[in-house]
Write the C-alpha cells for this entry.
Amino acid sequence: MCFCCPSKLLPNYPQTQSLNFCFGAPMTASTHRTVLSLYMRVFRIARTWQAQSGVTSETETERKYILQEARTLFRQNQQLADQESIKRCIEECEARIEIGLHYRNPYPRATYLPPLGLATQKGRKLRTQQRLRKQAKPIYLQSQDET
C-alpha cells in the first residue's frame, strides 16, 4: 500500500483530485510527509481563504487560483529525483504560503529586475547579466518562467 497518495490516506478525498506522489526515485519518509503536508496545507488554506476585499466573487476566483496553482506545480515537480531540487521546491512552497498569508494575496509578488536591454545581444556581458538576473530571482518565483 502506498502511504504517499492523498486518496489512500484520506478516505473522503475525491479521486479526481488525487495526486500521485509515488516518485520513481527513492525518497525518504520525512520528505514524503513534508510534501504531503504542504499539499494538504495548501488545500486547507484554499478552503478557508477569504479575499481581502471581502467580495464573494473575488474570494472564489482566488480560491480557484490557489487550487489550480498547487495542482499544476505539484504535478510538474512530481518526478523530481534529486534531493536538492526537491528541497528547493519545498522551500519555494513554504515561502509562497507565508507570503500569501501575510499579504492576504495568493498571487506571486512582482519582482522588478532590470531588463536585458543594457547588454549587447551576445557575448560575455549578456551571459553575465542573465546570470545576475537568475541569482536575483527570489525563491518564491523559482517555478515561474523567465520573462
Residues 2 and 110 are 39 Å apart (CA to CA).
